[in-house]
Design a protein that fits this description.
single chain, alpha/beta, Rossmann fold, 3 domains, 11 helices, 33% helix, globular
């Protein structure tokens, strides 16, 4: 069976997967992949099937944007005994109820020498320089940081940065695209974040990316300062945020009201089905980047939990992300 050639650009750690399945005696297994790599399922299946007899692998076609949403529902539906989650490492705020093996999918094309040179260049003018990255560049970033005498502090997620990054004079983000670069800037400071893209081999500061975003976010927050009717949309599994919702609820005054909904997946149609005219402001508790990236053009303000608390508590002097 054929498969796209780009599948070979990532390390699926097939031997590790096979050993884990054998040691656990797992025969029915759910495979979870990022959307762009679902086409590599045929490659995974053929490689594993050639080493383990009578194995039954099922592909989860549900969205897999992070390890906060391990597909436990799909696993139960197909009677899977275990799940292999490709593309992310374990989410720090959630432990699935099913055995899970996390495979980061290290990109094989990283030029460590080039990365080390770029890290060294952007860190020359500061005393403390920290490096964060995504699962796909974990090994390469750790080695390159050592060569550049920078401090590697761990993984950056859309809603989480290693605490050590906050105290660094400069934060270097090694990741493709702008998503994680923006996340680091929102959680620390745009002025100190530098982003290195190992795919495109470019270097850029985060400030120009974030300034426009922050102007829009602050405008939306200001629209909610006197809002009376609030809708909070919670998520499931690792995106279930009961503590965050309790904080928002406790910040409401006696004249304000909150309704809570829960959804597995949240997009504009989710909100339109609930909100024809009932609510002044909407908060997405599940994933903070949904409000910023996917629903920024919705006609009513859609906030992150941190932004909602800024509006409710009147603390608009310092931007808070994500909660």
């Amino acid at each position: 069976m054929s498969y796209p050639s780009f599948c070979l650009e990532y390390d699926f750690e097939i031997d590790r997967v096979v050993n884990w399945l054998r040691s656990g005696g797992y025969r029915k297994v759910l495979i979870q992949l990022p959307p762009a790599l679902m086409r590599c399922f045929s490659y995974i299946y053929s490689e594993i099937e050639s080493q383990i007899e009578n194995v039954i692998l099922t592909l989860s076609a549900n969205p897999s944007y992070g390890s906060c949403l391990v597909d436990e529902v799909g696993a139960r539906a197909v009677g899977a005994e275990a799940l292999v989650h490709f593309g992310h490492l374990e989410y720090p705020f959630y432990s699935p109820s099913i055995p899970v093996l996390y495979i980061p999918l290290e990109w094989r094309g990283a030029n460590i020498e080039w990365l080390a040179e770029r890290i060294e260049e952007v860190c020359r003018d500061v005393e403390s320089c920290c490096v964060v990255t995504t699962a796909q560049h974990l090994k390469a970033s750790r080695v390159a940081s050592g060569l550049a005498r920078a401090r590697f502090v761990g993984l950056i997620l859309g809603c989480y940065a290693p605490p050590a990054a906050a105290s660094c004079d400069r934060v270097v983000v090694i990741a493709g695209g702008d998503f994680h670069c923006v996340s680091a800037a929102l959680m620390t400071s745009a002025n100190k974040v530098i982003c290195i893209d190992p795919y495109e081999r470019n270097v850029k500061g985060a400030r120009s990316l974030v300034e426009k975003i922050l102007r829009v976010r602050l405008w939306k927050i200001s629209k909610c300062i006197n809002a009376r009717h609030w809708l909070v949309i919670d998520g499931v599994l690792g995106q279930h945020r009961s503590t965050v919702i309790d904080r928002i609820r406790s910040a409401l005054s006696s004249s304000q009201r909150i309704h809570v909904a829960v959804a597995y997946s949240i997009d504009e149609s989710t909100i339109r089905n609930i909100d024809p005219c009932s609510y002044d402001c909407i908060v997405v508790a599940a994933c903070p980047r949904i409000a910023i990236d996917d629903l920024s053009r919705y006609e009513k303000p859609v906030l992150t939990p941190g932004e909602a608390l800024m509006a409710l508590e009147g603390r608009i002097d310092r931007y808070v992300y994500p909660w």
